[in-house]
Amino acid sequence: MRSHPRTSPSCVRPKTTRSLSNWLEARFPGARIVPELDALPALSVEREALWARLNAAAFVSEGEKRRLAGLSASKTREGRVDD
């Protein structure tokens, strides 16, 4: 079963998180919600599909793949940021 693009988890998460954070911020200054998406087993299929697409793109560097996946760039052994 395929979900509708407007209600897919990747579409709903930012809106829900933003709404909850705005509600909390009004009552508790400085409070915000930041989901740890990698800890949600229900999203593993989405993550696996994303990494499969990124790994298939041989022309994209490892640093770019990490950024496209929403991760920070990794550092090389020499301490430089991998682009």
Summarize the structure.
The protein is mainly alpha-helical. The chain has three helices and no strands.
Structure description:
The protein has helices spanning 9-27, 44-56, 62-68. The termini are far apart. It is an all-alpha fold and 83 residues long. It is 47% helix and 0% strand. Residues 1-8 have low confidence and may be disordered. The longest helix has 19 residues, at 9-27.
Query: Mean of the pLDDT scores?
Result: 76
Helix content: 40-55%
SSE-based structural type: mainly alpha
Beta strand count: 0
Based on the model shown, name its key terms:
0% strand, 47% helix, 3 helices, 83 residues, disordered N terminus, mainly alpha
Topology overview:
Elements: H1 9-27, H2 44-56, H3 62-68
